[in-house]
TrEMBL record:
GO molecular function: nucleic acid binding
Protein name: Tc1-like transposase DDE domain-containing protein
Alphabetical list of Pfam families matching this protein: DDE_3
Species classification: Eukaryota, Metazoa, Chordata, Craniata, Vertebrata
Superkingdom classification of source: Eukaryota
Residues in Tc1-like transposase DDE domain copies: 49-193
Organism: Neogobius melanostomus
Length: 244
């Protein structure tokens, strides 16, 4: 996870943090395998993928500013965890998904996801999205390797529905390959640009949901169009960190 601040004075620090994520050797291998397996995919192929992720937006009461707790990989760095105590004010966690065709739902989550919570999201939100957007069963659903995503009840549910869509086998430590990360950046920028900043969690949640609903089609389609370039970047880095 990576702690992001909306304060402009921290922007250089944020960029440095994002560039210094260590990718373990085994993860590099899996990232490289994934890139090689998808190096011939065109934008038309990537249009069949629905992307998902969770993000937490923290409210800092001391100055009314907003801070964002951003997941960058499944291995949490203790040096980042301490900032949750420093931030104060609580936060709003959301789960979202999108594809080339449309933005999907953005679901507020009351606490960190467990397998039971995630099963509800998968059955209530992922399933109808995938069957509606990809009625020919040619869609791929992307999720990262968070523990709740890999729980037996989740794996069994996907197996029971594998005739309707396919779960993309996602490499670990790969937020740079997930274009939804940049939609969180959009939400971040729009929160920063608000004339009146949220001062409580209800206002913060309402602002996040409103910003998400108004993200332009041009914006998220452009992100899907970047996928061949992202794959090439991973190949060039031999599975290592990319500029994304």
């Amino acid at each position: 996870m990576n702690f992001r601040s909306l304060s402009p004075s921290h922007e250089k620090w944020e960029q440095k943090q994002r560039c210094c994520v260590y990718i373990f050797v085994e993860c590099r291998k899996k990232r490289l395998q994934f890139a090689r397996a998808h190096q011939n995919w065109t934008v038309e192929d990537w249009k069949n993928v629905a992307w998902s992720d969770e993000s937490r937006f923290l409210l800092r009461h001391s100055d009314g500013g907003v801070r964002i707790w951003r997941k960058q990989n499944e291995n949490m760095d203790p040096s980042c965890l301490v900032t949750t105590v420093q931030a104060g004010g609580g936060g709003v966690m959301v789960w979202g998904m999108f594809s080339w065709h449309t933005l999907g739902p953005l679901v507020p989550i009351g606490h960190r996801l467990n397998a039971t919570d995630y099963l509800s999201i998968v059955s209530d939100h992922v399933h109808p999205f995938m069957t509606t957007m990809y009625p020919s069963s040619d869609g791929y659903f992307q999720q990262d390797n968070a523990p709740c995503h890999k729980a037996p009840i989740i794996s069994n549910w996907f197996l029971e529905h594998d005739n309707e869509f396919t779960v993309l086998q996602w490499p670990p430590q790969s937020p740079d390959l997930n274009p939804i990360e940049h939609l969180w950046d959009v939400v971040e920028r729009e929160l920063r640009a608000l004339d009146v900043h949220p001062t409580n969690l209800h206002q913060l949640q309402d602002a996040i949901l409103s910003i998400w609903a108004n993200i332009s089609k041009e914006c998220f389609q452009h992100l899907v169009e970047s996928m061949p370039r992202r794959i090439k970047a991973v190949l060039k880095a031999k599975g290592g960190q990319t500029q994304y």
